[in-house]
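[#protein-structures] MJ: dropping Polysaccharide biosynthesis protein C-terminal domain-containing protein here for a structure pass
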Amino acid sequence: MNAEHTAALREFDTTTARWGRLTMIAGLLFALAGPAYLVLFSGLDVEQARIWTALIAIAGTFGVLWVVEPLTYYPILGQASMYQAFMIGNISNKLLPSALIAQSAIGARPGTRRGELAAVMAIGGAAVVHLVSLLVFVGVLGTWLVGVVPADVIAVVQTYILPSVMGAVLVQAIVSTRNLRMTLVAGTVAALVVFVLVPAVPSLAFFGTAIAVLTTAVLAWFLRDRTAAPSGPAAGAPAAADAPAVPAGPGDPAAPVPPRTEDTARG
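AK: finished. structure tokens for Polysaccharide biosynthesis protein C-terminal domain-containing protein:
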């Protein structure tokens, strides 16, 4: 990777980080504007105790995902795509599959510069397709389609569409990783959590995903093949383009440095 490309990628990191922060802050303010209006100006007399009780209840159910999701998505998507993904939503069933398929199509490994740029383009394309299809099939044809599609077909779609999408994501992730040992570890841990741990301790059902992810990460670290040489670039991909997705250091335009902590946390 020459100095020109390194400077361009550094500018890309700076620009996406700046606008990513600003758009995330703007999104946060808009999201809180409605509840704030109801509490302060609607006259509904909402007590603070109720608000804190509701917040604690939500945090107890979904709070673990606030930490697990950014940690698990970041190595695949990269900084710029993290801002896109968390602003758009539907990450696991729409944006992550799009990014994985795009990376696989061009032979880019997740966690590399090539993989990060592929994820950016894939998420942008997925968002456009989503909005256009939403406009056509819901905004224009929605009522007509619901009336002509048999109820049995709708029930089947509602039952199996999400497992179908998640199954495709799982297969794509296995193909992209191509690591039999880690695949077996992840599959074994997930099966134990779903079929053994949660039935034995039902109160852990909401934390099943977090338990599976953290346990797999720890076991993958200790059970990794320590004698294997680091994998090279993906087939057909230039070596420089598959460099780790980290910006160059200020003292050496070609030297990689770790990602900035604040960017990772915000993603």
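MJ: nice. Residues 3-40 form the longest helix (38 residues).
AK: one more thing. Residues 231-240, 246-267 have pLDDT under 50 and may be disordered.
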